[in-house]
Amino acid sequence: MVTAVPHRHITRFMLIRFFLLYPWAATGLADAMEEVLVIGEQDSYFEKSRATALKMNSEDLETPFSTSVINSAVLEDLKASTLETAYGYLTGFARSGTNANAFTIRGQAADLQNIQVDGLPGLASRFGSPVTANVERMEVLKGPASVLYGWMDPGGMVNIVTKKPQAQSSTSIDITGQYFTGYNKNGLEGSLDSTGSLNEGRSLLYRVVSGLETLNSFRDYVESESTYLFPSLAWLPDDQSRLDVQFEYLKQDRNADNGLWVINQDINTLAEIETYYQEPGDTDNDEGYGVSVAYQRTISDQLSAHVKWRSIWHEDERDLYESNSLQTEAGETTLRRRNRHQLNKREYHFADANLIASTHFGLPQTFILGFNGGYEYRQYDRIAFDTRGANLSLVAPQYTGRILSDDPGTFRQWNLYSTGFYAMDRITLSQHWTLLVGARWDKQSGDYQLRYIDVDDSGIEEDESAQNVSVNGGVVYRVNDQLSFYASFAESFNPQAIPSFDVNGDQLDPEQGEQWEAGFKFESVGGRLNLNMAYFDVLKKNIVEEGESGANELIGEVSSQGLEVTLQAQPSVNFQFMLGYTYTDAEISQAYADAADTLGNPPGFVPKNTAFAMTRYNYPEPVWGGFVGASFGWKYQDERYTDEETSRRVLLPSHRLMDIGFYYEVNNAKYALNIANLSDETYYVGGTNDTRIYPGDPRKVSLSARFDF
Known about the structure:
Blueprint: H1 29-35, E1 67-71, H2 72-78, E2 93-95, E3 103-105, E4 108-109, E5 115-117, E6 120-121, E7 135-142, H3 146-149, E8 156-162, E9 170-180, E10 185-197, E11 204-216, E12 223-235, E13 241-255, E14 283-300, E15 303-329, E16 332-361, E17 363-384, E18 388-393, E19 410-428, E20 433-452, E21 459-478, E22 483-494, E23 511-523, E24 529-546, E25 552-572, E26 575-590, E27 609-618, E28 627-637, E29 640-641, E30 651-652, E31 655-666, E32 669-676, E33 684-688, E34 692-695, E35 700-708
């Protein structure tokens, strides 16, 4: 008898509507087809956010907030090695650069705190987008999330849900090669993912994810090497308890790159996208270690306890001739550079503990009581900073070598402490109505030290604290098992950097954020059709600006309103698609009266219109002894500015990108050919003002092979 291909090996194939397949197949295929019940079945792109929105299991139709999920099926089909590859397939998202938090959500910039790992802050890498090797899925909560997660900006939160040990043994090896077609640059990646049980009772589980990659960018002299290791253990003493212990190590070495520089704020003055303005050999390095511990216990059908801890030790170092300013002499414009050597160290030690209980105090309700908080250490050391020169041509740079002297700058460090208590109650008022209310109290404290290394090692020291109360609430009207309408309100806060003093020398109050949201959610029977629509109105206030007196004041405001629509459908087991559209109208709604340079302007990297489509198709019959499929993705982003200041911003043009993939699977092997930016369109992913413009990847071809054991 011919062995049938298991269902887990006939998944993850995608689409192209015009894709044609050869009709022949291998000998003995008819016998195999008799044994395979469903051919071409694929994992769905649609996955509900399981616990990020409320920190408890909740049906999406009964959650009064918007959530989006990028699951492993999407990441696999895109062959995404970092999360930024998938950002274009999320509503409300726009990239703003190359760092880990270089994106905007619903018209608002993101802090590092807006990216969390299993619900706690602290990334092992800061310069680059998080790697996906250890990512099970990415859950995005739109709007303020401070009530449950603490201080952050109001646009939304990205929660990276990591891979956990599984009882079923499996091992996969993935190898990917990539090539920039017009630049003769390539790269190679390899990863291992192995999980299973360490004892017969399956109470002790393990998982190891590791990988290496070396990439040669289309940018001149820009290369990178990455190493990562994610070992983890899980202990399940009984059916009601689970303890997970996870370790992580990440090292990324790359060439420092400030991107391109424009003249007179005109994007058309840019040099070719491969042009490099730093010195060959300049570096940007990241290294981080971490440990996470999570324990959960189901005490009864009505009560459960959850405890988490996460610690990260991170160091990044930049040693480069960074782009500094334009100089014009004898009619020639050149780029002046600055010798900068920066060493940063960070530590994160954060915990979260909560109880979730279901009760009947007159009405059925589920509430959560919790505590979270921790300690963050920051150290910024300007080993070299002030020496300028070594000018370059913008069009055809002739590198000078490292001719500038090392002149140290400042040494700064912070010790930051946060403590927060939160409560949330979800009350079932009737068969159709659900009410949600939540509140949080926070205390933030910290000390700051500044030393002027380049002068006489003198400096200043400050010690400040602040308190804050945040609330949220929402109401859901559930029409039936498929349709619900909702409305909600949520607040956020973000402490001002220490020191941020007013005219009296007092530390300024935290930034505040708030959002009003309303929408509906539809889910068909079986989950094959899902439609979500949300209107949002987000306001960020208490932004520090220099007032009329010359002192800092809480003047600035950024407002954004818009509409998000997401449709996901799977008409058959071998065909699915998802569509998304976002309209965002954002502006600097309040600023110092004399700051007409910003008032009324949109903030940086907030396009009015964004849209995406992604679809995949699996051919329903075996081909060449295996199975084939194809995918197609399309992303659109409106023009947007790099900054809100009229005198410094650059208008980046709109762009439309297409991604395609072809897939072949036989026995335990999966092969994929992916082409990103099929039309080879020139576009820009982010930057800073008119001084740093980062071009996006040109056409890139990736060939990958995955072997499952």
